[in-house]
Amino acid sequence: GPLSERPLMQVRLGELHTWISTCDFSPQGLLGAAQKAWNSYYAKYINVRRGGHTGISMLLAGYCLLSYSWNYQHFKRHRWRKYH
Amino acid sequence: MLSRLVLRAAPAALRALPPPPVAVGVLHATRQLHTTQQSLAPLPPLPEKGGEVRHGLIPEEFFQFLYPKTGVTGPYMLGTGLVLYLLSKEIYVVNHETVAALCILSVIIYGVKRFGPDVAAFADKLNEEKMAKALAVKNEAIEGLQAAIEEEKKEQWRVEGRSYLFDAKRNNVAMLLEANYRERLMMVYNEVKKRLDYQVAMQTLKRQKEQDHMIQWVEKNVIQSITPQQQKESIAKCILDLKALSKGAHAAV
Lengths: 84, 253
What we know:
The complex is a heterodimer of chains A (about 80) and B (about 250). Chain A has about 80 residues and is mainly alpha-helical. Chain A is built from four helices and no strands. Chain A has helices at about 15-20, 25-45, 55-70, 70-75. Chain B has about 250 residues and is mostly helical. The interface of A and B includes residues 47, 78 and 79 of A. Chain B: GO terms for molecular function: proton-transporting ATP synthase activity, rotational mechanism.
């Protein structure tokens, strides 16, 4: 289909630049994109008949990574060695 | 009289009124019309299992993405290299939180591995019960409606027999009328016969009386006409006859 309607996973690396230019970066657009992303994740991993721990554990792992990256400046001060 | 005048003037007065406002049509047009093909029921069924995930954290699509270029071990090499890089450059700093995370994660993983299937079976059972209840309600509703359809068909079949019912009723009424008519006919016949019998009895009585009277009169006259002389002659003749008869009887014996 046309470039602007394709989801991110089906955009090739070369077309990424043009794809980003067709994005809608207004608040409503960003909110809509976030909603779509959550909906697709939810439909694929959580809203199933026989789900497991996978859906939530991936969310928690992502949360751990995010919070580590937000506190990276604090962790940098507790390194074991000065020179790597 | 005055009321009739008022009634005659009413249509003219109504035409003189202003026409009713057209807002009624506008009000209806603002309601939602079902013009799309989408329908909310029945919903498509939920997928049976979620997306494939390896080691509980990394989706299968990542492995499939790297497989053509690096084969099976590619993602694992990538992971190992990444971990070593992060540790050696101390982008990931090992501190007390690492130890805490290891302990917590090991406990959680042990718990999930040990009690996972039981909890899953219990949750499935709850779901099954809910589904069974909903299905039971739906099936009951369907059965009730089908029974209603059967009853309706039966009633429709019964309606066809109406003509027979009416024929039977008509026959009954006709029979009653016929019986009544015959009863009355019988009554008429009896009454007429009674009257005619009376007339006949009267006539026979009259004739009998006339006959009796005539016989009596004739006898009376005959007895009156018998003179004493004729009586003596007849008695002497009878005696002579008797003697002759007795002689003949003696001779026969």
